[in-house]
Fold each of these.
Amino acid sequence: MALIPITPPAGIVKNGTDYTNKGRWVDGNLVRFENGYLKPIGGWDLLRNTALTGKPIGMYAYNDNSGNPVLAVGTSEKVYVYYNETWYDITPTGFVYETATGETGFGAADFGEEDFGDARSTSTLSFPANSFSFDNWGEELVFCFAGDGKIYRWQPSAPSTIASAISNAPVGNIATVVSNERHLFALGSGGDPRKIAWSEREDNTNWTSLARNTAGDIQIPTGGQILYGLKYKSDIIVFTDIGINRVYYLGAPFTYGIAEAGTNCKAISVRSIVQAGDFIAWLGENSVFAYDGTVKEIPCEVHDYIYNEMSELYRKSCWGGHNQNFNEIWWGFPSGANQTTPNKYVIWNYRDNTWSIGELDRSCWVDQGAFDKPIAGDSSGFIYEHESGVLTGELDPFCQSGPLEIGQGDKLAQVNQIIPDEEANALPGVTISFTGKFTPLGTETDFGSFTFENDGYTDARFSARQVKMKVTRNSQQDFQLGQIRLDVKPRGKR
C-alpha cells in the first residue's frame, strides 16, 4: 500500500490558470486557513433585528469612561450609535449625506464617443464615494463625513441627544482624527485639499493659532489632495491621492511637522485602509500595500481575483477590516460591471501569509475590542456580530484544488481509500469529491463524492493520473481539515 499525501499547501491562489496552479487550492468560499488547517469561517448573528436607514459605510467602536462599549455607524443617509444595548439616531440637523451618483449622462464618456441625442451607455469612470472618519475625544464621539465637511460631537452622558457641530471648528473638511497629544485634527481644513489644521491642546473649540497656544496648521509637502488620516503609533498618517505623509509631534513653537512617507501607493478606496496593530494595510490601485514605518508592496496570491473582477466604476466602495483573533485582514469589493456594493471578499492571514476568497454582502467592518466580536454591516442596512459560533443556514463552505498528480508518467493510479489525518477523524458531514482526467486535454470525469467515516477510512474506487479535489461541508458544524492521503496502487497505461 502506498499512501500519497495530496492536500495542497495552505492558501488559495487565483493568479493565472488552474493548470498553472497545479497542487494548490484555487477556489473557495467561507473558509480560512489557520495554522495550516482548512476551516470554515465563523458564523454571524444580527445585532439589530431591523435595518438601519441607508447603507452602512463606516464604523467605529470604543469604551466610555465607565467601560461601556460604544458603536458608531455611519450610513449613506444617517449616523447611529449603539450604546447600553440601545440604538440612537444621532444624525445632526442639516447633515449632508451621501448623494447618489449616476453612471450615465453628459460628460460620462469620452467626447464624441457616441451619437448626439442617443442615451448614454455606462461609462468606466470612477465616481467619488465619500467616507466617514470617527474618533473619540475622551468619551465623546467625534466624526466627520467627507460629503458634509463639518466635525461633530456626541456625548454618551446624553445618548438621545443628536450630534452637534463643534464650535469654531473648520468646515469643508475631508476627515478628522484625535492626536495622542489631545489635539483635534481637521484634514482638508476649510475646503483646502492640502491643508491640515489642529485645535488647541485639550480644547477642540479653539482653532486660532496664537503665540500662547498650540493650535496651528500645515500644508502637505507633496502635490495632490488629502483623502484620509488615522493615528499610527505616535504619528498621524495622512493619505493623499499620490501616497502618504507622516505628521509627527515637535512641541513648541511649531507643535507638528510633516514628511513624505510613501509615493505611488494611493489607496483605491479610503474605506480599504486598515490599522492592524503594528502596521497599516490597504488596497492600492493595482497592488496591496502595507506601512510599518516604510511602505511595502505585499505579494498577493489572489491579485487577479481582486483586480480583474472589481467593478471599475464602484471601486471606491471597497472596504477593509481587521480580525485580530485570527491574524486576518478582510477586504470586500464589488464584482461585476453594474455591482454598486461589495459582494466579494478576500482574507489575508498576515501571520501565515495565506489568502482566502469568497462571496459575502458586507459594506463595512470594525474589529473586536470594545465589543467581544467583530461587527459588520451589509448593503441592506443590517448589522451583524461575526465569529459567532458555527455557520448556519444554507451556507456550505468549500475549497477546490487545481490539478493534483497521483499517477507517475503515463501510468494510471488506482485509488482504494481516502485517509484523513487525526484532525479530520471526527468530521462527519464533510464530503470530498474528485474529478479527474486520463490526459491533460482529455474530458473530465466525475469520480463521485465521499464522506468521512468515523474510523478514519473512506473506501473509494477510481483510477486517474490527475485529479481535482473539492472539500465541502454538508452539515451545519465546524471542521478542521489537515493532511489527506490516498491509498493508491499503480495500474497500467489504461
Amino acid sequence: MPLIHKRRPFLPQLPPNIPVELRRFLVAVAQKLEELVVDPDPPAQVTNVTATKNNLGILLEWDEALKAHRYRVYRNVTTTFAATTTSSGASIIGELAGRRNTSFIDTADQLNTNQTRYYWISAVSESNQEGPISGMVSSTNFASSSAGAAAGVDAVASGSQSAAYGQSATASGLNSVSVGYLSIASGSYTVSIGQAAEATAESGTAVGMGAQADALDSISIGRVANIQHATSIGLGRAATSTATNQFVVGGSGAAISTIYVGNGVTNASPQALTFNVTGGTGTNIAGANFTLAGGISTGNASGGSLLFQTSSSGASGTGSNSLATRLTINATGNCLVAMGTSTGTAPIGGVANINVTAVGNVGVGEDDLISYTLPANALSSDGKAVRVRAWGTAANNANAKTVKLYFGATAILTTSLTVSVADSWWVEGLVIRTGSSTQDTVARLEETGSNTMDMEVSTAAITDTATIVIKLTGEATSNNDIVNEGLLVEMLN
C-alpha cells in the first residue's frame, strides 16, 4: 500500500480562550502561508482530449483534471513530444487559467495547407507543479491559401474559395456559399441560403427554409421546395419536381392560381408580352414547337381544358371589366367559341383533307376514285361529325354509271348517274357519331346536266378506334365514264 503524504499544519492548535478577532486573523495568516508551500501532490493527468478542425482552426477539448489550476497546451508537427537528437520537441502554444477552462482553439499558422498537427495537454497546480502529459491527439488543418471564410458557431467553410455564415453552416464545395443555421452547400459552385437549406449537386441553388437543390444545375426557391432533377426549377413553397428540365411553380398546400407577367397586376401603361420559344439558326433550321397543355387526368376523368379569356369594354371610367372565356379547347378535342357576348358556345369545325387530283374509273367494275383515311378516334365522343363533299363529271354516252360514297365498309350513298348526257355531279355526306360504334348518316347527289337529285338517310356501325377509309367509287363500262374531280373532308366539331 503506497504511503499517503499528509501536510503538517503551519500553526499549532489555537488555544480556545483567545479573542475571536485574533483567532480569525491567525487562521487567515495560516491559509496564506499554506498557499506558498509546495504541494507534494501534482495535478492529475488530463484525459479525454479531442481535436476537431473548423474554419477558425483546430479546437482542442478535454475533461477537468483534479488539482488543476491551469492547463498547458503543447504542439508539434511530428509525433515526438520530447526533443531528440533527430527531431524537435513539442512547444507550449498556450496556457489557460482556471480548472474549468477546458478548451483551446489553435488559430496559428492557418496558411499551411493540410498540415497535420499533434497536441498534448497537461494540468498545472496552483504551486506550479505540472501533472502527467496527456495522450497525443492530432488533426489536419484544412485551411489553405484559397481557403474560404466562415462566421458563426461551428460554421465551416472547407471548400476552396467558399463561404459559410451562420451557426453550423457548412460550405464544403468549391466556390460554394452557405448562409443560415444548418445550411449546407456541398456541391461545387452551389448556393444555399436559409435555415437547413441544402444544395448538394454542382451548380445547385437552394433558397428558403428547408429548400433542397440536389441535382445538377437545379434551382429550388421557397420553403421546403424540393428539386431533385437536373436542370429543373422550383418556385414557391413545397414546389417539387418529377422529371428533368421542369419549371414548377407552387406546391402542395401553397398553390399559385394566378400569374401576372409584365408591369404588375394593373398599371396605367400595361406592358404587352410575347412568349417565344427558341428559333433556329443556320441553314434550313426549323423553330421549336410551342405546346400549351391542360392538366392531365387519371382514370376515367377528363383532362383540363384550355381556356382563352378576354374582357369586353364597359362603361366609361376606371372600373375593371370582367374576364370572359372566348375560346375553349376541351379534353375531347372540341374547340368551342363564344356566341357573341352570350353564355353560349358553338363548336369550330376544320378541314381535315382536300384532294383535287382528278381520278377516273377504269373499264368495267367498281373502282376506288379519291379516298381519305380518317385517323383513329377522330370521332371520340357522341355528337362529333364529319362532312364529306365530292364532285366530278360523267361522259355523254349510254353506259350505265353508278357512284357510291363509303364511310368505312358502309356505303352511305349509292346512286346512278343519268346516261346520254354531259353531266356534272355533286355528292355530299354527313356522318354523326351516336355511340361508341354507331353513326347516323345522310347523303345526297345532285346532277346539273339532268337537273336531278338523290338522297339517302341511314345508319352505320363503324368502330372509330381504328382508322376509317372515306372514299368515292365509280362503276361503269369505259375508262373515264365517271371522273372524280375532288374530295373534301371536314370535321364539324
